[in-house]
Specification:
7-stranded mixed beta sheet, disordered N terminus
Length: 211
């Protein structure tokens, strides 16, 4: 969930004092975010380029940058075509889904869809924060502008067909690995339940025979 702009935003007004920034005529960061600032329009939006949280990745890694307006169908169509084996053509081994702000949920959805489509994928998840700068310009006075600095949460999800470091924070094994680890315990419990059920069914019959 995107952090509240009140605690993560700083409003800079060139040529004005701190008292003027807090005056009723200047829009608040919340008003700028919601687009309710009267007489101001957003003219520039610059996101800080964050470093890759997965150092040492080999060449040929597919990077999928998920945006708020991206369509999951288009993203998955392109990513699946590159990752899946097609006849004699071998697909890529790794893919990284990255999204920030309101695109975080969509990024997680893309990763979960691929894990269901391609079995045996190892996952590594990293959370970061990135800076965002928005420039707002006054429509009444073209020389007056405001700059809002915000902090957005960012998520990067690495899916790999090859084994990743299980000791690295954020690692998640493939789902079939969990099934193999817990399969013996589940089967044992099911056998006990079956035995108990059969005993309970046979008990009334034994009583009838005694009668």
């Amino acid at each position: 969930m995107e952090p509240s702009v009140d605690g993560d935003a700083r409003l800079c007004v060139p040529g004005q004092t701190a008292h003027a920034q807090s005056s009723s005529t200047s829009p608040t960061p919340r008003e700028l975010k919601r687009g309710h600032a009267v007489g101001f329009k957003k003219v520039c939006r610059i996101e800080e380029e964050s470093l890759c949280p997965f150092p040492g990745l080999p060449a040929g890694v597919l990077e999928m940058k998920v945006k708020e307006g991206s369509k999951i169908r288009n993203l998955m169509g392109f990513a699946m075509a590159r990752m899946q084996d097609d006849g004699g053509k071998v697909g890529l081994r790794r893919v990284v889904f990255t999204g920030s702000g309101r695109a975080v949920t969509k990024t997680i959805t893309c990763a979960e869809i691929m894990k269901r489509k391609i079995c045996g994928l190892h996952q590594m998840t990293k959370l970061q924060y990135k800076s965002l700068r928005e420039v707002w310009e006054s429509q009444e006075d073209g020389d007056s502008e405001m700059t809002v600095h915000r902090t957005l949460p960012s998520i990067s999800i690495l899916l790999s067909k090859d084994l990743l470091d299980p000791l690295e924070p954020g690692y998640q094994p493939p789902e079939n690995v969990w099934e193999q680890r817990n399969g013996g315990e589940v089967s044992h419990v099911m056998e006990n339940r079956s035995t108990d059920s059969s005993d309970s069914l046979m008990e009334p019959q034994a009583k009838r025979c005694c009668l």
